[in-house]
Amino acid sequence: MNMRPQSSLSFFSTLTVNGNTEHFSFCLDLSRSESFPSHRFSCVDDEFHADTRYSTYQVPHNAAHLQLELGDCLGYGGTGTVYSARVSNPLSDLPPSVPSELVVKFARLNRCRSLAREAWIYNYLDENEKLTGTVVPRCYGFFTSKLTESSVECTTSSSFELPFELPWSVYEYDRDPHRDSILEDDIGKLVRPRTWKPDHIITKESSPWNSWAPDPDDPLVAVLLLEKGGQMYTMFDDKDPLVQEDVQLICEDLELAGVAHNDFRMPNLIRAPLATSVCPRHNRVHQWNIIDFNQAWPLDLSVENYPRDTDLVLDLDYRSGYFYGWQ
Ligand SMILES: Nc1ncnc2c1ncn2[C@@H]1O[C@H](COP(=O)(O)OP(=O)(O)OP(=O)(O)O)[C@@H](O)[C@H]1O
């Protein structure tokens, strides 16, 4: 029987991140936290739907503890700052498939809710679509911790507000540093089912993240732990027909999973991690992975008129002006 290996999302319950650079040093203890479910978008009526199938995923409470030493900054954007991190646990404590280096995406202090959404999409792609490890990096969980002054030392200044000084600092160009960004399923009409049964199922509306807002007096740090991929896509890669073919195929995989990415640009396409598995649909190891899902949402292709009605929403528009950053 062809059994899928245990999901990387079930490996760890708690995490310690040690960061020591010339600007700061910190030691953060974090615990697994629930991610933030999305409503289901439907192209039938162009509305978001509350749907009990789109709910939180269980977090493991008695799984292993992971210890990381922060390495280089790999990139940043409006939502977070991304670092490589070396696993410092004794190897015997870890599931054998855990690589020695991972990636920590820190949410900016005002963007924890957006990162909680991105974490939910990774969960969705892992559990429903089995795309983690082939088309998107494997995810090792979403963790949070309250930030205390005692856990952080800044060598330049002790301010929590300094841009770029700390991995969770608010983005310098943020238009509203005191709020998280508005997600597409926060606005417009919401369609509710006629019968709404189980109270114990946590959907977007009943999730604590739905009403979350950053509190400067009680800051929260949130991180997403991912498999480490390589360099992002460049104009040089763009000229290679083999690269183009492979990217078309991973776009097809994400489209057939019914996940609308909503921000498909060159920086969100990276070289696939070393341990990428064979894609069962294309019977090959893809050389590229898609990242950055904080603006994504799922569709249910079994109720959509696919591809006729879904094309505009699901099409990743590879090599479009938006992809190149021209519009
Ligand atoms: N798993 C990964 N492996 C290697 N590099 C990564 C990984 N995840 C992110 N990066 C690097 O970090 C950069 C920023 O990551 P990401 O796009 O997730 O941040 P963001 O803040 O959500 O961006 P945006 O402003 O588009 O929302 C990427 O362009 C990429 O270079």
UniProtKB/TrEMBL annotation:
GO terms for molecular function: ATP binding. Keywords: ATP-binding, Nucleotide-binding. This is Protein kinase domain-containing protein. The keyword Chaperone does not apply. The keyword Transmembrane does not apply. InterPro entries: Kinase-like_dom_sf, Protein_kinase_ATP_BS. Coiled coil: none annotated. It comes from Lentinula detonsa. ATP binds at residue 105.
